[in-house]
Amino acid sequence: MLKATHTGSERRPARSRAKWNRNVLLCETAWEVCQQVGGIYTVVRSKVPYMVQQWGDNYCMVGPYNRDTAQVEFEEVEATGPFGAAVEVLRQKGLDVRFGRWLVTGRPFVVLLNPDCAVARLGEIKYLIWEHHGISINKPDSLLDRVLAFGWLVEQFVYALQAALPQEQHLIMHFHEWMAGTAIPGLRRNKSRAGCVFTTHATLLGRFLAMSDSHYYEHIPQTDWRTAAQRVGIEPQFMLERAAAHGAHVFSTVSEITGYECEHLVGRKPDVLVPNGLNIEHFSALHEFQNLHRMYKEKLHEFVTGHFFPSYSFDLDRTVYYFTSGRYEYVNKGFDLTIEAMSRLNWRMKQLKTDRTVVVFLITKADTRSINAEVLQCRAVLDEIWHTCEAIQNQIGKRLFGAVTAGKWPSIDSLVDDYWKLRLRRNLQAWKRNHLPLIITHDLNHENDDAILNQLRACRLFNNQDDPVKVVYHPDFVVPADPLFGMDYDQFVRGCHLGIFPSLYEPWGYAPMECVVMGIPTVTSDLAGFGTYCKHHIPDHNERGIMVLNRRGIDFNRAADSLADMALRFAMQERRDRIMQRNRVENTSDEFDWQNLGRHYDAAHQLALERSRGGHAGAPAHAPKAP
């Protein structure tokens, strides 16, 4: 198995590499091309500049046509070149195919295939999958139907593209996840010349099993995949994933921990690891990241003032901001462990009688009705107080200047109109609250069933005045239109001091990596692909501000204690120490640039080219071994 190697922060990744031979074309296929559904969107989108740099016009992306998202992300252009020729062939057959550019950095060629135009063929498609590959698909499933229709369209596109290429030109098809990989079994059965790479970013079955098993990785060797897939109702989908993995010339995944999972559940050991990266230039702030932290921390100060100060106040200069975020996978994403650890941190800080305060933000997407009216009102009153104080300041400044230049020493009261004094008193009256600050910012549709809210209550994290740890559960995405924060997610991250992501199941983990590239220390876990990568390839990761929590083989109670220890040590740091640590974190960011990690994709594509030329039928399964 090919592995990433640690280059050290002192060595910058190479910015120029040998380009691929012009006689090789690459098509990268994913369900999330030009439409954001989950994490694959970040992978394929952020990698575009590197791929275009390597491949130029010999690179094309293929995805499903979604009218709503295409209007924003896709620009249709005249079909040209070999990719355009294949598009025209499909159009002549009456299929709805679009050719254009993805409106992201790099502007790659894109072919969008509309699954709706192949729905009439679903009966035939499902029959051939059963007849040729032994996968029975009987139960109605609208998403699966669209995936199968898309896979058939991809297969037709490959045949048309190959027919348009001269014999000396070679084609590599790279498929991301089972939703894009359903074309692989048919391509291999029909002896397509294309070299096929299949990358699973998380096994479909693994996500389901990990949700209900805190010792998932210990139990994998004893898991019967067919029985487990039948139990959770995804047998045909997982069989399609297995067929894609076994049919590909090259099978890859994003991390060693997911490779271990693949060996047991998918039955094939990955040939190449392709760690996820980012386009660091997108986040680059040169030496401004410290100033950006200070700027957006002030925005968080504003929110905290509006949320907590109507009830009581604390010293913002002695306050640090922690956050965790991600899809609402309560156990998989480690929300349960984070809350338990913050409860223990609260108790420990009380025992130390420290004057420090920790505000913990829990950011995810839940089923909400609206922002809580009281939270909105407090924010509105805060804005009104600010505007009133600004008006008073301007009036005092002008009148004081006029009096002093006239040789007078005025009384303070004479400098402010009664109107502004009355308005400020009314603001203060509307500002004060006689109850505790809320622990949640929104009204939930199913409050009694919300696991995060119920655990906060069970742990008695109620935002009492004597609690050193305060919590803010924000069950919605952070966007600039949010009236509470008024900034985007990247800005929110930059304003925080520490990101906490102690995942139980995380094939990679973009959230902690995004913290690193923005110069924010972070906690990840050794059950996350990002965490295992850092443990194995960045020996001094702790000193660099990337703390890896041991969860493999560790029970929940011990893991919560360890996380509370990490959080306490960080909270007790002085400002100077935090600044130095942010510098070390930011210096690590180039480790995760696609200009560095893209070489693993190069290795996968080179291997697929060699195997497809040599008639390789795909690598055999290997004996499983723990990473």
If you had to describe this structure to a student in words, what would you say it looks like?
With 627 residues, this protein is of the alpha/beta class. The chain contains 24 helices and 17 strands. The chain folds into three domains: 274 residues, 3-Layer(aba) Sandwich (Rossmann fold), CATH 3.40.50.2000; 248 residues, 3-Layer(aba) Sandwich (Rossmann fold), CATH 3.40.50.2000; 63 residues. The strands form three sheets. It has a nine-stranded mixed β-sheet, with helices on both faces. It has a six-stranded parallel β-sheet with strand order 14-11-10-15-16-17, with helices on both faces. The N terminus and C terminus are likely disordered.
- The CATH topology of the largest domain: Rossmann fold
Mass-distribution shape: globular
Count of discrete alpha- or pi-helical segments spanning 4 or more residues: 24
> Which radius of gyration do the C-alpha atoms yield?
28 Å
**Beta strands, count:** 17
- Low-confidence blocks of residues: 1-18, 619-627
Number of domains as seen in the coordinates: 3
CATH class annotation of the largest domain: Alpha Beta
Structural class: alpha/beta
- Termini gap: 11 Å
Strand order of the largest sheet: 3-4-5-2-1-6-7-8-9
Beta-strand content bin? 5-15%
- Report the average pLDDT across residues: 91
Describe the largest sheet: 9 strands, mixed
Could you name the CATH homologous superfamily of the largest domain? Glycogen Phosphorylase B
